[in-house]
Amino acid sequence: MVPFAGWLMPVQYTSIVEEHQAVRNNVGVFDISHMGQLIVEGPGACEWLNTMLTNNVGKLDVGTGQYTFLLNDRGGIIDDLIVYRIGQMEFLLVVNAARADEDFAWLQDHLPNVEAAVSAAREVHFVNRSADFGGVAIQGPRIAEFFHTLFGNDANLPPRNSIADFPFDGTTVSVARTGYTGEDGIEVFFRSSDAAKFWNAALERGKPFGIKPCGLGARDTLRLEMCYPLNGSDLSPERNPIEAGLGFFVDLTKPNFIGRDVLFETKENGPREKLVPFRMKEKGPPPRPHYAVFENGERVGEVTSGTLSPSLNWGVGMAYVSTARAKIGAQIDIEIRGQKFPATIERKPLYKKP
Amino acid sequence: MNVPDDLRYTESHEWIKREGDNVRVGITDHAQSELTDVVYVELPKMDRQANAKEAIAVVESVKAASDIYAPVKGTVVEVNKALEADPGLINREPYGQGWIFVLKLDNADDLKQLKDAEAYEKQIG
Predict the structure, then answer these.
(1) Residue A190: which CATH number?
(2) Parallel, antiparallel, or unpaired for β A90-95 and A36-41?
(3) Taking CB atoms and an 8 Å limit, are B36 and A285 in contact across chains?
(4) For residue A8, what pLDDT is reported?
(5) Which end of chain A is more exposed for a tag (fewer CB within 10 A), N or C?
(6) Whose CA is closest to A275, among A321, A208, A227?
(7) Are strands A212-214 and A28-31 parallel, antiparallel or unpaired?
(8) A307 vs B60: CB contact, 8 Å cut-off?
(9) C-alpha angle A194/A23/A137, rounded to 5°?
């Protein structure tokens, strides 16, 4: 068990590699109760969120969600999150555990209501419901079958990036078709008091599917093979989404959102550094965060995430590298305990399903 | 957890087996089960002289790199090359084929500082 953002969470239940393979081949379940849930509602909710988040909230139909960023005034990333439109005027933000309080405080400070007089049309109500909800992610190629085992044959698996409510053993849970593993999967949110019941039911009914409980270790190897960023490692208040190669989730056609000017300028002039995936060329020690990156003997960047990929059986990672050197196919060296090991800058994702 | 009676132990989870003037060193069953999935071992250099508690090897699992310490003062006289091709030996046979290095003892009396099986078992609870 390790302390993680105020939660005590297992790095592994049995073995990172076994848990990783369960998700790639069958189905695995992760406790994501640590993640935060913020609710924004009111006539002004959509308009206000569009000034706070990088993606275009206005494009969401009720029951759909999108990946997006919450930025500081310098365009740096406070958090990456998923925003779901759960009603015409109601939104659910699923945020990182370590940032939930910070996100809440930042959003609270920017509510339109803090201005003296706000018209009824701009009114927004904002609450932190993190303590009220627990959640699990169930991920893997057998998720569709397993979904029907959990929720019945008449239940419709929500389409990708969509969210819907389902009855479950006398309670109601929300199911979103999303995840952080690169496999098909769902995230299920329920009242905290139902957490143990749902977790145990998922493990019990998942037995025929070869389900395994999965810890933070497998969550990290799975997401890294897909080049999904981890906040606190690959993303930080000093980095913006353009540098992180995630401009797809930034809508610069929106006239106004916090950080827009900086992102616009970064996009125009090109970022100084870019986040790139790489793979080691030799069997050797796996790359780890903070190792230095060299090209032709010159230091050009730093590793932010690294591991031995259980699917590829190669050392893989992501690093911020000066833009001029950040070319796919470029040969770099990773310095590990004073010795340089060759690597190649790769295309995203590092792992593709065979 | 397997803690053989005939070995000595360190607080940092190395096991030590006396072989005449030498000691064979590896990591305990408890340590390998905590690390799981060992994927790389950086062996010490031959003839390296090390002080007690000096980091001289590295065992890397999927999740992290962990230093392995010389349990006593001595000189590296043998390293387990088999771990380069098959680091998983540490998981499968921590007290057998998964040994890491052999030190020539500087002073056999140093062994008295090490824990016996009972004390180590108490440590890992």
Answers:
(1) 3.30.1360.120
(2) antiparallel
(3) no
(4) 81
(5) C
(6) A321
(7) parallel
(8) no
(9) 25
Q: Helix H segments across A238-316?
A: 260-269
Which of B36, B39, B58 comes nearest A12 by C-beta? B36
Q: What are phi and psi of A63, to 5 degrees?
A: 90, 10
Is residue A248 in some structural domain?
yes
By residue range, what is the domain housing residue A43? 27-210+240-262
In this complex, the residue of B36, B39, B42 whose CB is nearest that of residue A308 is B39
Q: Quote the tokens at residue A216.
A: 């933070």
Residue A237 phi, psi (nearest 5): -65, -15
Interface predicted TM-score (ipTM) of this complex, two decimals? 0.83
Residue-wise pLDDT tens digits, A242-261: 999 999 999 999 999 999 99
Nearest to A39 by CA among A99, A124, A164: A124
pTM for this predicted structure: 0.92
| Among chain A residues, CA nearest to B41 | A285
Instruction: Supply the pLDDT for residue A277.
Output: 98
- Does residue B64 register a pLDDT over 90? no
* Distance between CA atoms of residues A165 and A175, nearest Å: 6
Residue A305: what residue type? S
Token digits for A27? 């189905």
- Whether residue A117 has pLDDT greater than 80: no
User: How many Å lie between the alpha carbon of A341 and the closest alpha carbon of chain B?
Assistant: 13
B100 and B57 Cβ atoms separated by less than 8 Å: yes
- Looking at CATH, the fold of the domain delimited by B8-124 is given as OB fold (Dihydrolipoamide Acetyltransferase, E2P) (2.40.50)
Contacts 24+ apart (CB under 8 A), B27-30: B27/B59, B27/B68, B27/B90, B27/B94, B27/B98, B27/B100, B28/B1, B28/B3, B28/B94, B28/B95, B28/B120, B28/B124, B29/B1, B29/B2, B29/B3, B29/B94, B29/B95, B30/B1, B30/B3, B30/B124
